[in-house]
Amino acid sequence: MKSLLIACAVIFMSCAGTPPQKSAAMQGNAELLISENQGGTDTSGFKIIKDEKDFRNIIQGSFGVTQLKESYISYPKFPKNKKVVLYNLGTFRSGSHKIEEIKNVSVKNQILYVEVPAGEPSGGMEIQVISSPWFIFTVPADYQFTSVELKYSK
C-alpha cells in the first residue's frame, strides 16, 4: 500500500510539475510589450510605431496624461531590430477584452495574423462598462503586411 501511494505521488508530481514549453522559434516570433483595457480608439485598427518618441507619446496619451513628467510612467524598452505595432481592438460594452498573451504570429497575403487566447465567458450578469482595449507588440523586422487580424484560439 505504501509503495502504491509513493507511485501515485511520483506520477502526480511528474505531470503537474512542469508547465508546457513553447518552441524557441515561437517565443522569439512576437512579444507583447503592453496591454490595457482602456485608452484605445473606438474602431479597431493598427499603426506601426517608428521610433521611441512616438512609442512614449502613444503610451502617455492612452492613459490620458500628456503633461506628466517622464518619471511617473514606467515604459517598456523600445525594441531595436523589430517592428513595433499598436493594435486597437475597438469598443466593447461588457467583459474584459485585454490581451494577456500572444500565442503566434504569421503573415499570409500581406495580412499579419495574431493568434491570441479566446476570452472565457463569465457565465453570469456582467456590469456594462464601455472599454476600448489596446496592446503594443513586436514582430520580426522583415514581416511585410498591410493589415492585421486577430485569431482567437483555445
Strand content: 25-35%
Summarize the main sheet. Answer: 4 strands, antiparallel
- Rounded to the nearest angstrom, the radius of gyration is 20 Å
In round numbers, the mean pLDDT is 77
Strand line-up in the sheet with most strands: 1-8-3-2
Helix content: 10-25%
Structural class: alpha+beta
Number of helices: 3
Q: Which series of helices and strands comes N to C?
A: HHEEHEEEEEEE
Topology:
Elements: H1 2-16, H2 24-29, E1 31-36, E2 45-49, H3 52-62, E3 82-88, E4 92-94, E5 104-108, E6 111-117, E7 128-131, E8 134-140, E9 147-153
Give an overview of the whole structure:
- By secondary structure, this protein is α+β, with helices and mostly antiparallel strands.
- Helices cover 21% and strands 33% of the residues.
- It contains three helices and nine strands.
- The chain starts with a helix and ends with a strand.
- The model is unreliable at 7-28 (pLDDT under 50).
Could you name the key traits of this structure?
globular; alpha+beta; 3 helices; four-stranded antiparallel sheet
